[in-house]
Amino acid sequence: MKGLDARVVVRREAFALDVALDAAPGEVLAVLGPNGAGKSTLLGALSGLLRPDEGHVRVGDETVTDVAAGVHVPPHRRGVGLLAQQALLFPHLTALANVAFGPRAHGVARREAEERARGLLAEVDAAELADRRPGRMSGGQQQRVALARALAPRPELLLLDEPLAALDVDATPAMRTLLRRVIRGAGQTAVLVTHSALDALVLADRVVVLTDGRVVEQGSTREVLARPRTAFTARIAGLDLVPGTAGDGGLLAPDGTVVAGRVEGAVAGEPAVAVFPPSAVAVFAERPKGSPRNVLPVRLAAIEPRGDVVRLRAAAAPGGPAWVDGLAADVTPAAVADLGVEPGADLWFAVKATEVMIHAGNPERPVPQFGRVVPG
């Protein structure tokens, strides 16, 4: 038995979604992808709010959608819970009544429904909110109650649609920890849509990456984020990525230059990507001499403070490679001060070959080119 088994095809005039995915009972599957990739369309089909043009959705032992057989179970009867960006609590009901609403709608007696609701409110650290209405709660408190409400009908499948996106920075870590504890504790099968690599790492067992309505990457969370095969995944994982073809001891970029690095699992002549962290990139005002094997001329596009480091974002330099946009280097504030630069300045990024990992790329869908490293 699977917690979820789905194949969803949705056709629109300018967009088509064709995705197959599954999740074992108790598994949390993260769905990542850029805006317009089809994540919301996929959730709509899983929840029953959208009828696909082809395919099926099986939740536990029940087929809730089968286009060929004419089966389409309505949302409230398919054993699926939803936690969205906005809590969407009933404003006229207390927290207790909001959480008890689902079980009551499924025929559970009032006393039993309220007992279940009190237990869930305690699980999400919101017991003290039982008699409070949404208007008297913070955003984080509302989201805790919304999580309890989503779990109250005991759904076979829980859909999490960017559940932390609307929370302020102070409430997000606590809610992320709470989600992990409650979902794991309940052994809940879940599909999490998120733009956050941290959310995926903390909450998900596996990751599926969508681009243009298709799955372009999938696997265990740590492997996908550590070994990204597309520019989007590299960006959310906080890594720089250069696409090309695997060669002996390096990656052959589309223009013929070679990126020196450690080849791991890539086959010579096959699509591959070179990946390295922004922290491995050294930045120079003049072309460096000496040990760096990979040296890249860039024009500084942006300076982004990030806690204890400053991220320097690259764009194309005059006469330099045109596909460097988006490469990043993380340096100290002192290094930025020593460089004395601002956006528009011409710089050099340098990366040692030992810091570059080269692994198999996506053979079905080429990744956008946004970086080139030329040998020094």
Automatic annotation (TrEMBL):
The keyword Transferase does not apply. InterPro entries: AAA+_ATPase, ABC_SmlMolc_Importer, ABC_transporter-like_ATP-bd, ABC_transporter-like_CS, Mo/tungstate-bd_C_term_dom, Mop_domain, P-loop_NTPase, Transp-assoc_OB_typ1. Residues 289-360 form the Mop domain. GO terms for molecular function: ATP binding. Residues 1-237 form the ABC transporter domain. Keywords: ATP-binding, Molybdenum, Nucleotide-binding, Transport. This is Sulfate/molybdate ABC transporter ATP-binding protein. It comes from Pseudonocardia aurantiaca.
